[in-house]
Design a protein that fits this description.
Keywords: Calcium, Lyase, Secreted, Signal. The protein is mainly beta and 159 residues long. It is built from no helices and 15 strands.
């Protein structure tokens, strides 16, 4: 089953629950640099890959979300050109998965705060160098990195 598609940015996804996620629970496309898509409350389970995929422009906020057995909570597009995506992830409880992957050389930025993780120690925020058309980007770094992955390790709690 396909997930929710936000075709033009500026979407509010509130208290939506996804079980057995197929490709992505939420795909964000289009929009402008000033677009803001908000995910408030809710959660997702059983996502072999991504929960939120951002292929558009603008900002995304994920707050008060529960996610379990997943590959990545958030992934910015690594083959979509320089879109300067901004992501804020706050008050998330994550079980068995990674929190976010950014495309650092495309000026993506993440702010991460108050994340509780159950399961093995994981890379909370990692980044890749984006590619042009074709080829999947490969991970090139992890951890706090100034404007790329902005968070304090003491705001991440393993339970």
């Amino acid at each position: 089953m396909e997930g929710v598609h936000c075709e033009h940015g500026d979407c509010l996804v509130q208290n939506v629950w996804w079980n057995d996620v197929c490709e992505d629970a939420l795909s964000i496309k289009g929009g402008s640099a000033s677009s803001m898509t908000r995910v408030v409350g809710g959660g997702a389970r059983s996502a072999a890959d991504k929960v939120v995929q951002h292929n558009g422009y603008g900002s995304v906020s994920i707050e008060g979300f529960y996610v379990q057995d997943f590959g990545k909570l958030f992934r910015s597009c690594g083959t979509c050109g320089d879109k300067g995506v901004s992501i804020s992830i706050k008050n998330v409880f994550a079980v068995n998965g990674r929190v976010s992957i950014l495309t650092k050389n495309k000026s993506d930025r993440a702010t991460i705060e108050n994340i509780k993780i159950k399961g093995k120690k994981v890379d909370v925020c990692s980044w890749s160098d984006g590619t042009g058309a074709g080829g999947e980007p490969r991970k090139s770094g992890v951890g706090p990195s100034g404007s790329g992955c902005s968070y304090s390790p003491n705001t991440i709690t393993y339970v």
